Amino acid sequence: MSRLLRLIPVVFRTIRRSPIRSGLTIMGIAMAMYLFTGVESMRNGVRDATEAGAGDSMLVVYRENRYCPFTSRLPEWYVDRIERIEGVKAAVPMQILVSNCRASLDVVTFRGVPGDSLGASLSPGTEIVAGSINDWTKRGDAAIVGESLAARRGIRVGDRFNAAGVAVYVAGILESSEMQDRNSAWVHLPFLQEALRRGGTGGFVTQFNVVVDDPARMDEIALSIDEAFAHDERPTATRPEKAFIGRAARDIVGIANFAGILGWGALVAVFALIANAIMLAMRDRIRDHAIMQTLGWTGPLIGWMVLVEGAMLGLFGGILGAFGAWLTIQYGRFAMTMEGASIEISTSAWTAIIGTGLALALGILAGVAPALRLSRRSIASSFGAV
Amino acid sequence: MSTPFIQCRELTRTYTRGTERITPLDKLDLDIDRGQFVALMGPSGSGKTTLLNLLAGIDSPTEGELLIGDTPVHSLSRGRLAAWRADHVGYIFQLYNLVPVLNAYENVELPLLLQSITRQERHRRVSNAMEAVGITDRHKHYPRQLSGGQEQRVAIARAIVTEPDLLLCDEPTGDLDRETATSIMDLLQRLNRDEGRTIVMVTHDPATTRWADTLLHLEKGRLLEHEEVTT
Ligand SMILES: Nc1ncnc2c1ncn2[C@@H]1O[C@H](COP(=O)(O)OP(=O)(O)OP(=O)(O)O)[C@@H](O)[C@H]1O
Ligand SMILES: [Mg+2]
To answer: In this structure, which of A158, A191, A220, A327 has its CB flanked by the most CB atoms within 10 Å?
Structure first.
């Protein structure tokens, strides 16, 4: 056992002393693992944003057959009727304004809510980490900015910022466990309606965010809301928030699913890179192996060194690529936003650790076949090849 | 007389290549005593390397017996043969003795990695071996940075670092100039005389046989004559 451990530094030396070959291999593995980790983070984000949780209690009421915040227009007074529907705890009219309606990595989403409804429109896991709601209430052009959006744009309390033709004053920063909240800027509803006046939006909002009493009755309540407005001039379509996001951002979800294939492809590439590097190295080292066998190395010991080499290449490439991707995402705070629905690219150190573990496993796997072949090879035939 | 250190009894090695059968060693009988320095000559293809490989436990005989010390080398399994080799044999080739990505020190250290000894002990033994062959100032040099003679010295240091009873050399001076060859032969003789190591050396150069105490001629897998060389 200790003999096996003593050989590990020897393998490390052989890797270090062919810097070009090892460097290129490790770089290739790192690139593939960067891609893999990036894709996995994107898929994590999609899962978090669109997969319903047991405690979800938020419904989004949208104009039927409309998908973009620019075209969904519902009368603000619907809010009274919605609130009277049995099972509805609170409803908040909301005007959405996005700086870009297409899928993009840096969209500012404004959510206009009535001054007294800000609290009700935020999910329970929300906290103001800078500034205060008070300051927000006092100023007509004030905004409370989600922490991810603030980090991405470098926004601080007291700043003014301008997006989608709307200039606001930053009264606070909020932190939230909800992705949509982290990526929006809350402003006063009348202020946003005023800003949009040229489109004639007065008295209209984009959507209503509805909190229900009992999460188990979400679908039933959504149905009653839609029934209530079915014969109105402006009928509604109500969905649980996660389902609404999945629908609004369906292109992003589609891309993420496709990218999943790329992620697996990246793993195959890692395997192929390591297998190729090892096979070339083995061909170069037939003589070295013959020497080592005369010194008392058994076939299995040489096989062990090959496995260690594969493992090391995988490990180094994996660490570089996976943690590189992790750092990039950690500092970039990317969110893909489409039609006002945000999907964060969310990575955790776990994604990077799992990625590194996979690269390590693939490295070992790539070494198995050559290792077995070498461990069975007779020493005389090694010399025959010298 | 005590029993010989190495006893070959009807030692035979046959290779089959397709339908062709080659028998480079044919029922060879040979005794070598402990502490002997044997020079082995013979035309190319006469089976010298084949014999050396059998003595080293690198190759196994097709038939016959090979006893070295008390060990029936011909009947050891592959794993045991490797362990036996590590403990008892030092092998030196004409060329390509060293692993190119390891420096001189690390090359000499290689066989010790298979033994359960501390790092300090390894260091002590490697330093001693390198001192014995006179290359203490080349620890950090890679094989490509060494001359042919220095490379051979490193190879010898590695062969003796485990303190084996038996040194096998396949044309150790074949690639060296006269002067360097002389110093290498002096070194081998010292290891033979001062430390009592048994040496079997294959050579094409009659001049190098004068360092040996026994000269053997191999031809077509058989020993021709068995003459004592006066030193
Ligand atoms: N692994 C092998 N498979 C098949 N034939 C072999 C093998 N090893 C050696 N031979 C054959 O056995 C014969 C003797 O080879 P050997 O290497 O022992 O000769 P040698 O005396 O060392 O020659 P040289 O002086 O050229 O080194 C040769 O004909 C060689 O082709
Ligand atoms: Mg030969």
So the answer is: A191
